[in-house]
Amino acid sequence: MNKTNQTSTRREFLRQSALTCGTTVASMAVIALILPDDAYAAGTTSEYDWDKHRWVYLIDTRKCIGCGSCARACRKENQVPEGMYRTWIERIAIPPEGEVHVDSPYGGEHGFEPDPPNAHVRKSFFVPKLCNHCSNTPCTQVCPVGASFETNDGVVLVDPKQCIGCGYCLQACPYGSRFMNPHTRTADKCTLCYHRITKGLPTACVQACPVGARQLGDRKNPNDPVNEILATQRVQVLQQQLLTKPQCFYLGLDMEVR
Amino acid sequence: MGHELIGFLFPNDVHIHWTLMIVLYPYVTGLVAGAFIVSSLYHVFDREELKPLGRFALAASFCFLSVATLPLLNHLGHPERGPMVVVTPNFSSAMAGFGILYASYFLVVILEIWFVFRADMIRYAAESRGFKRMFYATLALGVYDTSEEARALDHKITRILAAIGIPMACLLHGYVGFLFGALKSNPWWSTPLMPVIFLFSAVVSGIAVLIVLYQLAMKIKGMPIERETISALARWLWLFMIMSLTLELLEIMTLAYEKAEEWEVIGPLLANQLSISFISVQMVLGGLIPLILLGIVVVMGAYMDDRIRNTLSMVASLLLLMQVLAMRWNVVIGGQMFSKSMRGFRDTYVPGMFEKEGILAAAAILILPFLLLVVFERILPTFDHLGQKTGDLNLDLDSEPRLG
Amino acid sequence: MEPASSLKHTKHIFRVSFLLGFVLIVMILSRGLFVPKSWGQYGWYRGDAVPEHRAKPVVHGGDQSCRECHEDQYDLREEGAHVGVRCEGCHEPVGSHVINGEMTAPMFIPASFELCTGCHRRLAARPDDFSQVNPQQHLEDNEMDLTDTVCTECHDPHSPF
Asked: Which residues in chain B have Cβ-Cβ distances shorter than 8 Å to A186?
């Protein structure tokens, strides 16, 4: 109980600071602070040509420590409402026999409970999740009014001014990546930080990850390290039997991950 | 939040997005399609025993159709943007066809009603004065041709419209099933059987509601309940409910027998979350019992007292109306009781009484078509022409339509 | 109100067809009024939605923006084991602290037991080569009591060890 109290005061603080950010930060103000020697600052700001990029995402589950920094950064960067998740972290524990145990308290945003003392699971790992930005996407397919679409650089977005809030896309997404935003009453989801990546910045979650478990890649950039990994290593996607062609690739996935 | 979560759910999957309103929507459109098909059995296939219901069924279909969009609009996050479905329809979406399909079906029903009741409108206009006369004259679009030839033409067009209406009613409702059946993300919905199941249960609910309404209307009007009509309706109802139940069972049996990955969630779902609403209500109380009751009516009909026949078919119809509602509930809510992680469930879902999409709102929407039907009956009585045929060619002396 | 010409008994059909055609044409013509301006610019969606997404405010500025004022801490971190940890990961987004080069609010200093163990508590799911401890055991071994700031008594969060 003590822990919940601590986290709740901490969450209160985070929520307040997120609110201040959301309302007061002018985008240009922060951009002005960024030096161009950032790893991604090749072609920043206004001169962005989406035909020269094709964004992909790579997650190395063998590196993830389940700290939740990514989920916290996402919430602050995008003013994600409490209780809704654009990204989250699952802990998978696979005993040699018996039930697979999966948990994700608060989407892993505030870290994970210690292992139960009698747990002797030797195969256990964290799996960060987010919108897979599928290229054969079931969610944009079902949007009746064209409020959900894929950009030319491969990002699946929702137009909050066009969305009628029917919730069909939420039902169609097999990954649970979408939610109904209670403030806008429209469908909401990971934008792959479109406001950042189109300015040469990494997504908030990629930037926040202390161990490099999350990486943003650009298929059209031949020097991108993610391309090298995709070209040489064995990667997997989630629920590939559904043929949604996710553009979010995983290293070190187990068959028990769904 | 009076519910508990069992196992692991994706963190965004703990909400029920499609509520009671989305349960009601296929229920109401089902009543539309079912009632229309009964009306067409008379208008197209000349089933004389259904003549007393030819017009009434059409009127009922129209009234249900008028409220069919209400639950949807009430559910939308932005109902004011609802018309975008026809302004910028995204045709890769199953839902985008809704506006166009709904509008064209509405058109067919309105046109058919107009041609069926045109002669009546003119008669009422001729019999009345002042505002009332103007009203009926406007309804008749200012053309007062009731000649033999014109009426023959009306009859022909009615038949064509009723014939067009049958595939359209099937489309409109099959399409509702398709909305669910075509989502590969949800193992409880994703089956090509879904549109067919929806269609058959729609016809069941439509016939059932007509059996109830017909008996009520006749009681209120003090008119006799035709034995042939009830027998015919009971026969049709029995046939369609057998097909509907068979399909519903077939779906479950296939999943269970295949032991495919879907069964990992659907097995527990049926055993726990849906045990009452699926097994007890949809299968036993609303399935098996009406099957027996209607079976008695159909097989023993010739030796049966009218009152027993009427009561048995009334009870069976009410049970079937509940069965179809339960079926809609089990599909819509059942499909959201588990997470797409296929590892977790909600224990229950109980809609609130007063919330926006709660029980009260649902009740209001369900009562509305019956009120509309009363109003329709006052403007264009649907049973009065029956007395006409037997009472020679004379006009009805009583120009005030009576009801209640 | 006498019945009109009964030469051809199709007048009512023409009238209803005309009405219908009229309604249909009005509907089709008025559709254009409701289609959003930039519709179809790139595809079957509102083109303006793309720049609108791009224009959202950037909240996390990245380490380089922190370095502008806090070069000491930045360099200290560069040399230690926390080189991979972003400033804003433990602190708060720069946007809550500085706007247009002006400090608007003090920065949050989080050095709590909760924060450190969030990454370094031993969990079976964590990679074996990642530095982690059993907090109770670690405190007992070093004969220390659990307080909220106990970790930073020995470890400098900008450069631990």
From this structure: 77-78
Chain-chain contact of A186 with B184 (C-beta, under 8 angstroms): no
Q: What is the pLDDT of residue B197?
A: 95
Return the CATH fold of A2-251. Answer: Alpha-Beta Plaits (3.30.70)
Query: Is A53's pLDDT higher than 50?
Result: yes
Name the nearest CA neighbour of B108 among B60, B168, B175, B33: B168
Q: What is the pLDDT of residue A42?
A: 35
Q: What are the residue ranges spanned by the domains of chain A?
A: 2-251
Which residues, in sequence order, are bridge partners of residue A216?
A57
pLDDT digits (tens, 9 = 90+) for B181-240: 999 999 999 999 999 999 999 999 999 999 999 999 999 999 999 999 999 999 999 999
- Given a contact cutoff of 8 angstroms between Cβ atoms, the answer to whether C88 and C125 are in contact is no
Q: Let me know: does A123 contact A98? Beta carbons within 8 Å.
A: no
Q: Output the CA torsion B20→B26→B32→B37 (10° steps).
A: -150
Alpha helices, DSSP H only, in B68-96?
69-75, 84-87
Report chain B residues whose CB lies below 8 A from the CB of A90.
Answer: 8
Residue with tokens 């995983």: A250
**Amino acid of residue B357:** E
C120-154 CB burial, b ≥16 within 10 A, e <16 = bbbbbbbbeebebeebeebbeeeeeeeeeebbbee
The mean per-residue pLDDT over the stretch B146-150 comes to 90
**For residues B369 and B377, what is the distance between their CA atoms, to the nearest angstrom?**
12
Instruction: State how beta strands A248-251 and A87-94 pair.
Output: unpaired
C-alpha A97/C-alpha B213 separation (Å) is 59
Is C126 close to A65, i.e. CB distance below 8 A? yes
pLDDT at B47 over 70: yes
* B282-to-A109, B206, B288, B313, C55 alpha-carbon distances in Å: 42, 17, 9, 18, 52
| Distance of alpha carbon B176 from alpha carbon B94, whole angstroms | 9
Identity of the residue in A38, A111, A146 whose CB atom sits nearest the CB atom of C44? A146
Q: What confidence category does residue A117 fall into, taking pLDDT thresholds of 50, 70 and 90?
A: low
